[in-house]
Automatic annotation (TrEMBL):
This is diguanylate cyclase. Keywords: Phosphoprotein. Residues 11-127 form the Response regulatory domain. NCBIfam families: GGDEF (TIGR00254). It catalyses: 2 GTP = 3',3'-c-di-GMP + 2 diphosphate. It comes from the Bacteria. One of its GO terms (molecular function) is diguanylate cyclase activity.
Amino acid sequence: MNTIKPQKTGRILIIDDQPENIHVLANILQKEYEVQAATNGAKALEITYGKNPPDLILLDIVMPEMDGYEVCRRLKANKQIRDIPVIFVTVKKSVEDEEYGFNLGAVDYISKPFQPTVVRVRIRNHMNLKLKTEILEKLSLLDSLTNIPNRRSFDKELQREWKHALRSGHPLPVLMMNVDHFKHYNDNYGYGAGDECLKHITEAMNKKLRRPLDFFARYGGEEFVALLPNTDAPGTMQMAEQLRAAVAEANIPHEYSDTAPMVTISIGVATHSQETPKASLEELLMAADLALYQAKEKGRNQVQTDSPI
């Protein structure tokens, strides 16, 4: 009879200069979690900054060269890993010691010598809390109607791609998209039908954005936005036209539109590149918004750009 091994529910890094302490904690935890270990602060930081950072850190305070307080301070100074929970494992039990650790960003203390039940319960509680927090964070970055990234998520991605574009010199195109005459659609077909319309539009455009680099989000209401990092001007316009055509070809009836008998979109394109440098993110977004305004003014259901083709 085959036995089913329990699935491990996270990765824990144990940092302690005494290998026997690491061994004791690992024996307590290894049935439920994947366990990593480091016997000094430098190695611990190397592991945490790596490709597979831990989900939780158990950190001894008294260590040579770099003590636990300094390790914690450096962890919390890094934006990428500062949210990893740190639990101090120590013989230091005074109120002053605990207060100092909590002020550095630790979430809990476990006293030596270890009580296995206490260790398991405290770590399980913090791992569950971290999991729930991560789920809520992911949900906060998704649009609840279309299930694609929302404006908050777009703002974060735009900041990241902007910094990358400045470093690399690669172009960063932004596409601002607006559903034509959507108010008329809602007023005549109802808001429930309007919601379904937005879902169909999202699906139609999502099928065209296939590169891992491409980022597509709902900007708000009937507005959508896309980032096409490292795409030249002709490639950007080609993709924008494909998105416009995809919505039209979805053939969603809209008899109250002044533009076409089906739902259509207008698209404004702006690109930060060596040929058309933008001074700031705000200028890039304003340029895309102005191009969108021009697309509407010139009859809608079309693409306009601020960049030479």
